[in-house]
Design a protein that fits this description.
The chain has 6 helices and no strands. The protein has 186 residues and is an all-alpha fold. The mean pLDDT is 90. Helix 1 packs antiparallel against helix 6 and helix 5 packs antiparallel against helix 6.
């Protein structure tokens, strides 16, 4: 039960993180959009002035990219939190029920890892070389923290429950060991 509760709390934390960042990006839309435009412009790149990724200066593409970032954070955060509700509903259920309840949280966490690893670190960091500016380096550093924290929560939550997770009472199995029951034949 303790392990399930810890997993639930981690999922809630990751979902809130994503949801709050999405809301902050909406509240600060103009500043965030300007940051994306600055990264896409590759302005002030002195270490690696050339790139395989072309400069993007189209206002429509900048707005679309920022909307995708916000959308992925929002959808990912809501999916994780909805998954947390499902996990909470099966907290006292069987291992199989609890395991089945994790899929929505895991899908949301996967989307969040993709957002911060795929969009920020791969496209922004490697493609647009955003590490070359103070603004870009700060965003890249934050994306690393968010990707790692979401990925770590995803890895922990995806782990199977221990064999004793269905047990309600405390039983000492040190002499005989706990054995999984045989799967039903049918």
């Amino acid at each position: 039960m303790t392990i399930r509760f810890i997993k639930l709390m981690l999922v809630i934390g990751a979902g809130l993180q994503a949801l709050l960042y999405a809301l902050q990006n909406m509240v600060n839309y103009d500043a965030g959009r300007a940051a994306v435009a600055y990264v896409f412009s590759r302005a002030d790149h002195v270490v690696y002035p050339d790139s395989v990724v072309p400069v993007i200066d189209s206002p429509a593409l900048v707005s679309l990219a920022y909307a995708v970032i916000i959308g992925f954070e929002l959808v990912g955060g809501l999916a994780v939190l909805a998954g947390a509700v499902r996990m909470a509903q099966s907290l006292r259920g069987t291992r199989r029920a609890f395991s089945a309840s994790k899929w929505l949280a895991l899908a949301g966490l996967g989307l969040l890892v993709f957002t911060w690893l795929g969009l920020f670190m791969a496209i922004g960091g490697a493609g647009f070389q955003m590490w070359q500016t103070e603004l870009g380096a700060g965003s890249l550093e934050g994306a690393f923290f968010y990707a790692i924290s979401s990925g770590l929560v995803m890895a922990l939550v995806a782990q199977d429950e221990p064999c004793w997770a269905d047990r309600v009472e405390k039983v000492d199995h040190r002499d005989t060991g706990w054995q999984e029951p045989d799967a039903p034949q049918g």
